[in-house]
């Protein structure tokens, strides 16, 4: 049976699937064998992805409040769009263009991310745009940029991992976050390769590793520097590679000399023999990879943490060698492409800097505007959210593809700021926790109801194809943006056709670091995806950058010396336990999608705190009991899971749920000075058991 070939709506692996007519308006999912990333495999989220299209509370009509304190009620599209336009124009007239902000998402297609950035800059004239990808890959992006001159997720196709001799994975739990990825690591191990996992928890991924390093949260820089010290002390560094292909090594060598094994062990808690074994596995493999993920990156020193791991990879001579290198495991579905086309506060399409005069001139010409009319850099994601509704901040927010009431750090404060706005407009397909606060809600098409392109964690641009039309009353994001741009009198073209928008994206990004100008829908179709950069139609694409040179002024990769300084908030007598956060197998991001899919909700019905038996005994907390977890920012009520898979000084809460179980009521918004990434992965908390009746009520409510 012929179906529609497309890709999963969830993580950045972008597994291939075919959608078939399942009868009675439903779709049936079949995994594709021709997509290397998954090669016929899907996780539970992928298998149930079609159920997203028919969730019971799917929005099929615009919703609007008639006044402050009034409920959201259905309305017509013209009425909703007129309300948005009038509100935007009034606030711009009273307070200037930066009174209106835009917030995007890493799950938007390339076309929508591009059009959203264009809409903010020339339809609204605002500098106030950022997106939730700032909470995901921004530290790795910044570190890769300063080391290699480019931010590309993996150093080659994901299939290269199967031929690797060793992989060090720091802060990633791919067995739960992107299960088909484990196939490549399993093939590596079947071929004699070794997997080293760095994580404070013995996760599902760590349980499959040959070696598990379990550092205290916030100590990865000390660990990576300690590993580098051992590599240098044991003569395992590739001195010839360092001399020929890098700069800045001597400063890094000096720093690494101060992280002798015993000191690194005291800081991290990782035994010296395990550190020594990890270094030897990497150094002795003919091909090896160092990979980082959110556990290493979501810190107030996240950029430096990634730089420390890149330094280790460079010292071992891995980047720029075929089948080896450093890579970042991008999280959101279009986390790679979503940050390349202009929805970040400081960027224009093609991964160009918005303060670069040449970049401004190029993009302005494509858009048909004067470069002087383009705004400058705006606030980063958390800074933008925390400024909403303040005297100096935006008074209106247009939000696409994000749910910050659940996903942002210090979530209660973010919710308060959203409530303080004069106008909140949310485009979504369900009444998410953020949409429920909105003045206007615009129902949008879902992944299988529209076409576009996505860029997966390999840097491979893929086609997402429409399988069914959206329900009556639902519009695509491109249609919404075009309608608003027309009402606002915006200059230029505002096509609603994804292929036409992609053509304009290619022109706007031409010559930039992320150059898609040689990629067309036809090529993607014929070649099963095209790797960027691809600067011309006859260019083959670039599956493995850096083989000949790095895209830096001198062609060399740059070592960056970094020192361990610990978490922005350490434990103390009042808050004596570390909290770290993350994901679980059956849920995704803020849970707005997966909590509505019955099999996924049944598999992971509610929030919990994972704690070690020693800590549980000391605090009098029993497995399954209700627990109140408190930080300096708020409190969450969750259910206890007592397990030996976590350090005794650390607890873990997944962040997918809303209400009183929100992990992000607790998290610290301390920002990385380079990437502006908040410190999701470590803060100080205290725990106490709930009275029996409260614990029973908590369990019954879930």
Major sheet: arrangement of strands: 5-4-18-17-16-6-7
- The coarse overall form would be globular
What Rg is obtained from the alpha carbons, in whole angstroms? 24 Å
Mean pLDDT: 96
- Secondary structure tally: strands: 30
* Spatial separation of the terminal alpha carbons: 40 Å
Describe the main β-sheet briefly: 7 strands, mixed
Summarize the amount of helix as a percent range.
Answer: 25-40%
Question: What are the segments in which pLDDT stays under 50 over at least 5 consecutive residues?
Answer: none
Percentage beta strand: 15-25%
Class inferred from helices and paired strands? alpha/beta
Number of helices: 23
Protein architecture, described:
The strands form 8 sheets. A 7-stranded mixed beta sheet has the order 5-4-18-17-16-6-7, with helices on one face. The protein has a 6-stranded mixed beta sheet with strand order 24-26-25-30-23-27. A 5-stranded parallel beta sheet has the order 10-9-8-12-13, sandwiched between helices. It has 702 residues and is α/β, with parallel strands linked by helices. The chain is built from 23 helices and 30 strands. The mean pLDDT is 96. Helix content is 30%, strand content 18%.
């Amino acid at each position: 049976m012929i179906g529609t070939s497309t890709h999963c709506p969830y993580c950045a692996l972008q597994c291939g699937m075919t959608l078939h007519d399942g009868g009675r308006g439903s779709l049936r999912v079949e995994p594709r064998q021709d997509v290397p990333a998954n090669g016929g495999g899907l996780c539970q989220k992928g298998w149930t992805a079609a159920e997203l299209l028919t969730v019971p509370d799917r929005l099929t009509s615009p919703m609007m409040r008639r006044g402050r304190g009034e409920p959201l009620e259905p309305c017509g599209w013209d009425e909703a769009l007129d309300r948005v336009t009038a509100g935007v124009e009034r606030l711009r007239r009273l307070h200037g263009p930066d009174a209106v902000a835009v917030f995007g998402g890493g799950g938007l297609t390339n076309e929508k991310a591009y059009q959203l950035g264009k809409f903010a800059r020339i339809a609204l004239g605002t500098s106030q745009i950022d997106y939730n990808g700032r909470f995901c890959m921004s530290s790795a992006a910044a570190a890769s940029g300063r080391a290699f001159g480019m931010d590309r997720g993996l150093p080659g196709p994901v299939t290269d991992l199967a031929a690797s001799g060793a992989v060090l994975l720091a802060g990633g739990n791919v067995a739960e976050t992107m299960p088909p990825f484990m196939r490549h690591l399993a093939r590596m191990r079947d071929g004699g390769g070794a997997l080293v996992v760095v994580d404070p928890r013995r996760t599902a991924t760590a349980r499959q590793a040959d070696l598990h390093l379990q550092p205290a949260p916030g100590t990865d820089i000390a660990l990576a520097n300690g590993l580098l010290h051992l590599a240098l002390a044991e003569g395992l560094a590739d001195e010839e590679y360092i001399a020929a292909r890098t700069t800045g090594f001597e400063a890094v060598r000096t720093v690494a000399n101060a992280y002798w094994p015993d000191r690194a062990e005291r800081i991290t808690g990782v035994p010296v023999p395990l550190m020594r074994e990890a270094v030897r596995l990497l150094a002795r493999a003919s091909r090896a990879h160092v990979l980082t993920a959110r556990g290493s990156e979501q810190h107030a020193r996240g950029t430096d943490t990634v730089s420390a791991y890149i330094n280790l990879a460079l010292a071992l001579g891995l980047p720029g060698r075929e089948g080896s290198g450093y890579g970042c495991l991008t999280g959101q579905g279009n986390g790679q492409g979503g940050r390349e086309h202009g929805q970040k506060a400081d960027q224009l399409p093609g991964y160009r800097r918005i303060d670069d005069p040449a970049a401004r001139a190029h993009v302005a010409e494509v858009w048909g505007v004067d470069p002087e009319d383009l705004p400058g850099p705006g606030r980063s994601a958390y800074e933008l959210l925390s400024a909403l509704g303040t005297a100096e901040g935006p008074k209106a927010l247009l939000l696409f593809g994000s749910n910050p009431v659940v996903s942002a750090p210090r979530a209660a404060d973010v919710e308060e700021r959203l409530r303080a706005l004069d106008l909140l407009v949310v485009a979504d397909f369900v009444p998410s926790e953020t949409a429920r606060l909105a003045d206007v809600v615009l129902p949008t098409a879902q992944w299988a109801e529209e076409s576009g392109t996505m860029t997966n964690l390999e840097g491979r641009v893929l086609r997402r194809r429409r399988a069914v039309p959206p329900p009556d009353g639902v519009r695509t994001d491109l249609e919404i943006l075009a309608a608003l741009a027309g009402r606002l009198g915006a200059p230029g073209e505002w096509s609603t056709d994804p292929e036409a928008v992609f053509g304009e994206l290619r022109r706007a990004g031409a010559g930039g670091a992320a150059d898609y100008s040689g990629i067309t829908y036809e090529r993607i179709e014929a070649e099963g995806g095209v790797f960027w950069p691809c600067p011309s139609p006859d260019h083959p694409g670039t599956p493995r950058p850096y083989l000949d040179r790095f895209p830096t002024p001198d062609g060399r990769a740059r070592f960056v010396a970094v020192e361990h300084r610990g978490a922005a908030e350490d434990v103390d007598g009042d808050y004596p336990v570390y909290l770290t956060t993350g994901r679980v197998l059956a849920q995704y991001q803020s849970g707005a999608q997966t909590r509505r899919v019955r099999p996924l909700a049944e598999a992971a019905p509610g929030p919990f705190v994972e704690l070690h038996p020693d800590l549980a005994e000391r605090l009098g907390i029993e497995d399954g009991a209700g627990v109140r977890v408190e930080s300096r920012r708020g409190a969450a009520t969750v259910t206890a899971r007592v397990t030996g898979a976590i350090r005794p000084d650390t607890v873990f809460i997944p962040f997918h749920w809303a209400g009183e179980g929100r992990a992000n009521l607790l998290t610290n918004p301390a920002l990385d000075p380079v990437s502006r990434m908040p410190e999701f992965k470590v803060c100080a908390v205290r725990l106490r058991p709930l009275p029996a009746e409260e614990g029973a009520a908590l369990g019954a409510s879930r």
